[in-house]
Amino acid sequence: xxxxxxxxxxxxxxxxxxxxxxxxxxxxxxxxxxxxxxxxxxxxxxxxxxxxxxxxxxxxxxxxxxxxxxxxxxxxxxxxxxxxxxxxxxxxxxxxxxxxxxxxxxxxxxxxxxxxxxxxxxxxxxxxxxxxxxxxxxxxxxxxxxxxxxxxxxxxxxxxxxxxxxxxxxxxxxxxxxxxxxxxxxxxxxxxxxxxxxxxxxxxxxxxxxxxxxxxxxxxxxxxxxxxxxxxxxxxxxxxxxxxxxxxxxxxxxxxxxx
Length: 259
Description:
Helix content is 66%, strand content 9%. It contains eleven helices and five strands; from the N terminus they run H-H-H-H-E-E-H-E-H-H-H-H-H-E-E-H. The chain has helices at 2-18, 23-32, 35-43, 45-80, 112-128, 147-160, 162-174, 176-193, 198-204, 208-223, 245-258; strands spanning 93-94, 101-107, 132-138, 231-234, 237-240. A five-stranded mixed sheet has the order 1-3-2-4-5. Helix 5 (112-128) links the parallel strand 2 and strand 3 (132-138). Helix 6 runs antiparallel to helix 7 (162-174) and helix 7 (162-174) runs antiparallel to helix 8 (176-193).
């Protein structure tokens, strides 16, 4: 009797399919007897996988289109009303201070995506030269234990010499694997290599001014909705994540064309 009832239900489902049932009807039929779905899968498993994969691809495509549309809308809004991060001219600035394009970067020395962002910014500087300047700010994430110590070393070295701080920045990102393994010993080694005064550095590492600067950078990033790293603001336009060079080029070229 049970088998007969199942056959009736499967047949009923077949009729429903032929009659183009509503989503609600299909849902109710499968909920009453999940074996309906199993029968269909067993009958043609390859087709089932093909349909599932196609549905997943379509869902992913729609999600990507939505994200692209949301990004465009946000970017259009920022072109009309640019973001305004604080530009402290006394901080380390990579490039000429009167460059027409300012990139504010919110970064984490231990983040692998920030390492990719570092390479992209290098490409931007190579392409645009004196037209671009970069202000490096800090967004150390909780799950990167060496990110904040590295930020402190960077700012402490900056109190001595901006050029040495920039060299420190480059060396840490170019040897990021050593930061994880060598920890503070690696930071001290790099500080010595760039010529920092180690005695002064030790005193300045816990300077309240450095703590406040890092905290202010983090709060500013949060204010602009930048919660992950890296994040960039290019002449008031936000770029979130380790985006390719082309994304930076698009924003920079639009600003240079206006000028």
